[in-house]
Write a structure and sequence with these properties.
The chain is mostly beta strands and 170 residues long. The protein has one domain: Lipid/polyisoprenoid-binding, YceI-like (Lipocalin), CATH 2.40.128.110. It is 8% helix and 63% strand. It is built from 1 helix and 10 strands. Strands 1, 2, 3, 4, 5, 6, 7, 8, 9 and 10 form a 10-stranded antiparallel β-sheet that branches.
């Protein structure tokens, strides 16, 4: 979808059905990496002449990992930080067939800046039917409750997702 075709006025909600989830992947931490998926419970994309606002909510209490040790560590971190729900609120402007969005991701007592590229990837007749999210964030120092890992000084992660949208009717 080219920039000229980006909608400058419209509102869509994220369709929260099975498969509506966001994937978070870290770099290597010792011998392993963290690869987590969390279900999306809500969200909205609103485009106006002034730019775009993108919001997203995820249920971190329902996150999944492929490793039972990491699953336990992730749940421990969520509990320690009272971070059952992650809320993202970002604003941005059109860029290369999508939007560059910067906002805050908050969950419990954790608040970090997250930059996302939101790209319309739906079919030619309805490109806003599906979007792709790509981004990354630097968390800084994280204390992982795993034997042998302890503190990770420069923890960062990548975000990716494909989410269905539905037009929001006022």
């Amino acid at each position: 979808m080219a920039n000229a075709q980006l909608p400058t006025d419209g509102a869509w909600t994220v369709h929260t059905v099975d498969g509506a989830e966001v994937r978070l992947r870290s770099g290597r931490i010792g011998l392993m990496s963290v690869d987590v998926t969390a279900p999306v419970t809500g969200g909205e994309l609103v485009s106006t002449d002034d730019g775009v606002r993108f919001t997203l909510r995820m249920d971190l209490g329902q996150l999944r990992t492929g490793n039972f040790l990491m699953q336990a560590a992730a749940r421990s971190l969520i509990s320690r930080h009272d971070a059952g729900v992650l809320s993202y609120d970002g604003r941005g402007s059109a860029a290369d067939g999508g939007w560059q969005v910067t906002g805050h991701a908050t969950a419990g007592d954790v608040d970090l800046v997250l930059d996302l590229t939101v790209t319309a990837i739906g079919p030619a007749d309805d490109p806003m039917r599906e979007i792709e999210l790509v981004g990354s964030a630097d968390v800084g120092t994280v204390h992982l409750p795993l034997p042998g890992l302890g503190t990770v000084d420069d923890f960062s992660f990548d975000v990716d997702a494909r989410l269905a949208l539905r037009p929001r009717h006022s």
